[in-house]
Every structure is written in C-alpha cells, then in structure tokens.
Amino acid sequence: MGRKQRTRAATAVADAGENPRRPCPCGSGKRYKNCHGAGDDVIVIRPFEGLAAEPDLIAMREFLPSATAELPLRGSDGDPVTLASVLPGASAALVRDTGEQLLGMQVQTRSGDLSADLAGALSWARTAEAGSSLPVVGPSTRTSERLQDLLDPEIPLEVTLHRDFSWWLTGEPDAEESAALERANSVILPTDRVDAPGVRAAYWVDTGTKAHLRWVRPEPEDRLMAALARLSERGQLELSEDSKYAGSFRAHGLLVPVWDLDREMHSSEWAEPAATFAARLDEALSGIDDEPLTVAEHRARDVLAGKQITLR
C-alpha cells in the first residue's frame, strides 16, 4: 500500500516493538515491522476480521438505530461491558453513576482501525470515574490492544433491538436530556431482526417509503459474489416473489446484500424466505471451488458488481 493510497491518518495497533514479525492487521500481507510498525498511516479495511461477532459489529456500526449487546470478553472477570449502536452525544464510551460501562459504535473516528478504537474506549471505561463520558478516542486513550485481543473470537453478539432510546436514561431526565431523547427518537427507522435457521445479522427495516432486508454476510467478497451470480443466473436471487434484489454495499470489509420488500408484509413473514435463501446460498457457496463460473454467470456477476457501493 503506497503513501498516496493512505487517505487518512491512523494508528492501527501496537507499538512497533511489540511482536514486530506478526502479520500487519491492515491486511497488506506484510509483516507488522515492515508496514504499520514502520510508522506508516494505514486504514484497516476489515477491522473485525477473525471474530464471530464481525457481522453483528458491522450492523451496529452502520445501520442499526437503537441496539445494545453485551461484549463476550475473554475470561471476563470484571464487570460486563455493554456495546451500543449509539450513546448520548455520540460518545465513544461512558460510565454511568451505577458503574455500568458502555461503548458506542456510531462515533466520530480519528483512526483507521475501529477495532483499536473500541479497545481504547474499553480501556478508558475500565478506569474512568462513574458519571463520566469519553467524547472520542484519541492518542491519549488508545492502547496496544485491539478488539480481537479482548473478545472471545468464537462467540457472536446477542443483539437487542430497542424501539426508542429510553434505555439511555437511568432516572428522571432533565429538560436537556428530554430534548436530546426526543430528537434521537424522531429519526429511528423501524427495524427488526429476521430470525430463522441459517440466518444471522439479517435485519428488516422500514424507511417510510420502502422496506428492505439488509444482511451482513461473513464470506469473502469474491466467493459471495460468485455464489450470488450463480443464483442470479438460475433465477434464484430473490427471497420470494414479493422481493427484489436491490444490490449490496461494502462495509468494513464485508458485503451487505439488500433486498427491496413488500411493505405490507410483517417483518416476521420474511423469516422463512430468508432461511430458504440461506440454504440456496450455502449450496452455491459450496460448489464455487469445484465448478468455475460459466460465461453467463460471469456476466451475471458483472451486473451485480454494478449494483455495489462502498460505505467503509
């Protein structure tokens, strides 16, 4: 990765003296000492790679309006830590008067590595005074750790969706808090998780004019696009006759396919179609290595690639 390609200043991980021969987490393929550890500023394209919670973290970062989840910390001997889609004031972290520690996902970033930012926010919360908040993670709060060093890599998040932001409050709000709560609640889009066998990190959302299914997929982009192209060529890309594949967006190294849905249907009615599609997709993915794409499937892949955008 050349200097002209490094578009934002960031400190991605540990000091260069810590295990300098390990692979750099930016994904360059270089050793840490020859890449990030050499002092270059980098953006980590896939900051949550290696964690079962990766799709959940991306959903909370990018499009879940009001959601919380307890972090599955390794050997958690300390107090539990709650991850939130967004905290009051878009804070990076806060410690309530009760001592409860919360980290925010939808925050301003000053680093190219969200994983390191979250680890820094957690480090701050562990020692912060009750009733304090951290507006943004900066050099003074960042540590040598990343989220991968702190979480159990095998445990996904159990995300709880909230209809509003009333969980922000622990007591009777004052006038300023009430106004902030009202503003936050006014922009929430109705969102539900689609629960079904083989389905994870899939969410129904009503934008007011359309309903969508947004599904964070854990597969590498090339494999997923090939499988989707195969399904497209077979006429099997839709969830049902009441849906239409709209495209996908990239977020933090993963693809998020999106379908337009019939707004008249309840979110729960999409569980069975999603499960059926998941089975079709798994079958298509399993054959990618053994059976190359046909010419027609390559054309379908090119069409699908034209419906992609990149968020992060």
UniProtKB/TrEMBL annotation:
Transmembrane segments: none
All residue ranges annotated as the DUF5926 domain in the record: 47-312
Protein name: SEC-C motif-containing protein
Native source organism of the sequence: Pseudonocardia endophytica
SUPFAM superfamilies to which the protein is assigned, alphabetical: Sec-C motif
Coiled coil, from the record: none
Stretches the record annotates as Disordered: 1-21
